[in-house]
Each structure stands twice: as structure tokens, then as C-alpha cells.
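Working notes for the structural subgroup meeting. M.R. asked for a predicted model of this chain before we commit to crystallization trials. I am recording the input and output together here so anyone reviewing the notebook later can reproduce the run.

Input as submitted:
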Amino acid sequence: MEATSLLQALISKANNGHTEINFPVSSYFNYADNGGTLFPLDLAFENGKVLVRQNLTENTEIKIGAEVVSINNQSIHELLDGIFPFISAERRYFKLANKGNPYISH
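Returned structure, recorded in C-alpha cell form:
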């Protein structure tokens, strides 16, 4: 994962959605299958907002369609800015829409 992250950061400097390092799916599934911690919300990015598309937690207070403004007291936009250097795409819009992005569900 560390090597993949380094290569993703390097390749994303091209800012070209056709140039990317594939996410190591088998390592991810192995991690998940062995009790690894995963983000429990499926998110949608619409009109500048981050919305809950699916809630995989037991917390019924998190409703479908709720806007996510922060996670663990960090702004959602700050979190995305931390993820974007690993996603190769021409613009922010394409980084959010990137189907190969392992951090963002579609």
C-alpha cells in the first residue's frame, strides 16, 4: 500500500485522468476480510455538497441524503484536499467523479 500511495502521488502530478496506478484491490479485500476498518458511508458528490448515499452503520441518526460537512472534526473539503494528490484527473470535478478512486464510492 505504501508503494502504491507513492506511485499514485507521482502519477497524479500529470493531472490526466487516463494516467493512473490501479488500486490494489486484492490487498484491500484482504484487509477488509481480516477485520480492517473501513469507511461506513457511501458518499455522493453533487452541486458542491457531499451527501450520504448509503449508511452501513447501525447509527439511525445518519439519514440518506444528509450532508457531510466534517469527519472527526476535520472539514470534508480539507479531507478531500488530502486525498486529491493521489487521484490523477484534470480538474476537481473529475477527481470527485473518478470511478477508479478507492476512497470515494459511486
